[in-house]
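We modelled the chain as a single entity of 944 amino acids. Its sequence is:
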Amino acid sequence: MSMRVSGVREEMLGMGSQLELETNWSPSHLRLLYLLSRFATHPKSTDEEEQWLRSLPLQVMVFEAIVHGLLAFDYSPVCTSIVKDGQSRRLWLNMSHDARAAIDDLREHELVKALKTCSEDFQPSTAYQVTEQGLKVLATLPARDKQRLDEFLTSPRPTSESIRTSVDSPRPGVLGTATTNPSGLVLVENSLLKITYDADKGQFRIRRGDGSVYISRVTDIEEVSYVSSPYLPCCLMRNGTANFSSNAWQAEKCRKGAANSSIQDADLSFAIVLENVRLMVGEWIPFGPNQIVLLNDRLGSLERCQGGLFTSELDDAPTSTSLSISPGLTKIAIVDFEFDAFTNFEADIYAPIEDGIIQIESFGMHLNGDGSIVYGMEIDATMDRSADFLCVDHLARLLVDVDLDSSKIINDLLSPHQRALLDMLFMGDARSRNKFALLTASGISPKLPARAYLDRGEKENELKQVLGELHSVHDIGLDDKLLVGHDGMLLAGPNANKHEPLLIAHLALLSRELVVRFFFKRTFILGDVLARARCYMTSYEMNPEGMDDMRDRVSRCAHDLVLLEEILELLRESLRSLAHTIPSRPTPAEDDSTGGGAALYDHLQLRKTHKDLEMRCKDLAKLLRGFRAKLKQVQSQNGTMAKTILEGLVLGVERNVGVLAEATRANQRSLTGSFDVLLLLFAGILAFELLDRITDGSLLGVDDASAPALHWIKDMVVEKFIDYPGLWFVVNIIWLAVVIWILRVGIRIGYRRLARTQRLVFSGIPRRINVAAFEQFLRTPLDELSPETEEAAPVARGRCTRRRKRFIEARNSNVRGSIRVVKVLWSELAVHPKCQTWMEFFLRVRQNWEQFIAPPVRTQVTYDATNGLLIDVMVQAGVTTNCSEVYAQLMAQMESGGCFDEHYAPPTVTKSEGSSPNSRSNRGFLIPRSVARRNAPVHPTQGV
């Protein structure tokens, strides 16, 4: 099986090309198989673990082997997903389609096995392993080739293509210590080499067995010089004609930049050549009529000077004199527009490029209100090739610039909300999102039947560089060829441009298909986050510190779900509007006698593709409804979990409070016992002191120093009590018990007097009050109340306190808006009920003795000083005091004092000049100075 691969010819390597004839395998196949066998071989026994080599590190090693001249393969830029920490990032890498085809050849002959796996973000990946049969085939590989490959893996010679970093090694053959970034993603590691990926810098680091570490250039996309002109099909223009500028006159500049090309394999042969290539790249972005109106307004479509330079950077200081922004502006020139439907314009990128590289890049852009976006250009020259001789290798590298620059252009024109939708959908990697490429060419060389391009060799591999994996090829008429791949489509032939309406419709459908495809993957990630959240909630006790992170993820899921629903609704609306614009099946005409349009329509299957997309969107809607239900369940579980945690905290607090209460009760019992002991000691000392003063003092003449007239007491005490043994001790004990009982009764009475109180609040409809009269009422002593007031409440005088002095304890004001609310609190001493006889006194004490120890009556009045309204009255008194009678008596007193008369003018009170308000004559002998100060009247309009 002779394999001819594009790239450096086998004879240029000088490594046993005659082997191809003996073994039917090309040397590159065998070297690739040997390279794979050094990392992943079939286990020799069941006790050994199976080792597999992933596709990504294999492609990195293949690129390095190509650069070092060990493999005769070609390479081109390919957008690849790299997964780290559960999040994928799309990166352009120099990968070899020839190597992939070679691995497929080895798999078909069962020399290599493939293992299909799935990454954390549900991206498919493949790993490879050499079988036992493959190891037998490797016996035919010359020892010289094996030695060179081993040297490449362990200690390669320095090359100008690699950025080498010297690492000290004690001696050859001794492995050095790893010095890679600890945060790097380890792709492969064994005794030969270690490949890691640094996500922060986007670089691959290779560390070999001799300790050498260098940065691979697999991520350095080679720049090519090219000249392009803006282009859009006439079917996208309002009047059916396109009037774009042309840069064809600058094609000669490309030849000057070809000498400065960075392509490593500049002498490679070309298997496919295209003529007069027109490139159209399509994608779908969430748009709507309002967004397209806003965009036309921003572009200045209705202004005299349309377009201009645009950037997506925000102006943080619009009042500053100067503005500094990073390079990379976009120049827009309006060509055609319909204000609420679409806009067509030319876009030029002003970005710095490498020295010596000539890149004249101009786009024709079509933005439709349904979200369809088309970037079009006509290739005038690439490197030293003119428009009628364009090689696919150059086009593959040109497509990288088109893909990245088109994202840059549209990013400058989108609204912040649209950029947020894209960042969410593509997980922060919207700049490298997939786009579908549509290429049309007036000719293709060599011109073969369509099936001949699927040769599993150099032609198919070159076409894969721009179209991806080919899955269908068709002959359209006699001269046109249709090649459809995973990432693009090529229609080559003299009649290619006549079928642009069909091609544009197909481009619009496949652009939406890319979004649906990634949308479906995004739902898997959303479901995985919700599943992890549910799993965490079932065992949150194992990791309570992760609760905040889980709640943040659930919150982001809710936010992402809202955005996904919005994107899906816009996508379904765009599909409904697109159904009316899909062209019908062309009929053969004079200029299409072969029926190429009808054949192309049949092969593209536009209606079927549209119907399939609608069905997939319905399926996505069902998935989102399911995720919405799961989200509600997770949020419900989150509430239940929070409630459980709160209950646990409350129970813990209750337990702690119970422990504290028990400790407090124990301490209180200890203090009570100590107090009882102290009370007993105090009572004993007091009792014996009193008894000693009575019996042994000079007051009653018990001792000899007393008056003779009182000696009879001494004789009586000595004769009646002291002379009898033990009687005087009993008298002392009885006296001690009497004193203790009196003290305990006194303490009980004081406790009841202070503790047994009641509080009543009298509030109802606010009543008008004269603030000045009420202030005068507060300053009036109780003894100066009018007789009418005392007669108004005769019952209150007999049952309650006869107030002689009013002590104002507190007065404050609170401003609520424009209203000032004043609270005045005063107290009045209580007086015991009068009894005419002792019998009446004993009867009252027997009925309720607490009325004789009633605490002071405290009254608080709240009123609106701004509007003059009485809000409420609060009375606090002992349990034996009738608060209603106290309230009635207060209202009667205020009524007699003119407090409820709006026209009442209180008399002016003159203050004696010779006496101070705080003098002892005014405040009384036993009233403290502080109480007198509090008792001083304060005007209600004064703030506290």
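As a brief sanity check on the tokenised model: The two ends are 103 Å apart (CA to CA). Residues 756-935 form one domain.
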